[in-house]
Amino acid sequence: MRIGFCSFADEALVKHWYPRGVSARERLSYYAERYSTVEIDSTFYRMPDERTVRGWAERTPEDFVVHIKAFGVMTRHPLARMPPSLRAEMPVDERGRVDRPSRAARALVFSEFHRALEPLRQAGKLGGILFQLPPYVVPKPASFDYLDWARDQLGSDEMLVEFRHRSWLDEDRRAEVLGFLEERRMSYVSVDAPKLDAANVPRTLVAATTPLAYVRFHGRNAATWNTRGGGAAQRFDHLYAAGELAEWVEPLRELAAVSQAAYALFNNNNVSDGLAQAPAGAAVLQRLLAEADVPLG
Predict the structure, then answer these.
(1) Is residue 296 part of a domain?
(2) Domain span holding position 16
């Protein structure tokens, strides 16, 4: 079981976790001395470039694993930022965001994204590509078709799929959905989220559909999840209690037992009582798993 954060450069980490004097260039190296995996989420907002990706590969140990969040256009999100080389091919909405491009235009985005990750791929450090679907993508034939098409675009890279509309995992549908992912070699992403009965709060269902098991800890702040105008730091503002993480010891043991690789990533990215929430939660989970004799990587 490998544990890490869904960023190595969030403001909470910079101000409340990294020691004073650790430069921006040194942060990933410092992080990689303490954790064996990271999920990089900045790539959702901005297409990665090969030079930056090469730096990630060079500043991490040989057995380090980097997961990459897919660029938003790849997961059917409207985005304002687009590489100039691609923007001319894209339709834009009234707010200047690229929205609903053709399959051919999206294929160009996939191709550039794939090319940018080559340094990690060559170093053997590329983990999965996280496809976090927007909450307005619901389980219908067009959605399954798009996932199937996206799987082909990624080639041999691992595809991690996180659903954000809870209907994907309704009891009468979940077997079909998990079977679809398993058949097409897509890794289901389990999540820990608030206990809130809302369409855009994903259900917590622990499962693995490939030899790669993946869990994301979003926090359990029901009060801020749907605050109008709130950003990610507000939505995921939650310091996990030991009791909340203890609930995950046996599920994580089971995932690690049935998988070739298992990951738990903390996406709570705010500060509580002077503590950066992600490393605080990761430290508690590491302790709980070690006490339960769950092997850690």
Answers:
(1) no
(2) 2-291
CB proximity list for 63: less than 8 A, separation 6 or greater? 36
DSSP lists the bridge partners of residue 220 as none
Q: Domain tally for the chain? A: 1
Q: Is residue 297 part of a domain?
A: no
Distance, in Å, from the CA atom of 39 to the CA atom of 91, rounded to the nearest integer, reads 30
Residue 161 sits in a domain whose CATH number is 3.20.20.410
Measured distance CA(263)–CA(279) in Å, rounded: 15
The DSSP symbol for 198 reads -
Burial class (CB within 10 angstroms; exposed 0-12, middle 13-18, buried 19+) of 180: middle
Q: Which of 128, 183, 180 is nearest to 154 (CA)?
A: 128
Question: How many of the other CB atoms lie within 10 Å of CB of 50?
Answer: 14
Query: Token pair of 90, please?
Result: 């894209």
- Judge whether 119 lies within some domain: yes
Structure tokens given for 270? 């705010």
**pLDDT by 10s per residue, the chain, length 297:** 999 999 999 999 999 999 999 999 999 999 999 999 999 999 999 999 999 999 999 999 999 999 999 999 999 998 878 888 888 778 888 888 888 889 999 999 999 999 999 999 999 999 999 999 999 999 999 999 999 999 999 999 999 999 999 999 999 999 999 999 999 999 999 999 998 889 999 889 999 999 999 999 999 999 889 887 667 778 899 999 999 999 999 999 999 999 999 999 999 989 999 999 999 999 999 999 999 999 999
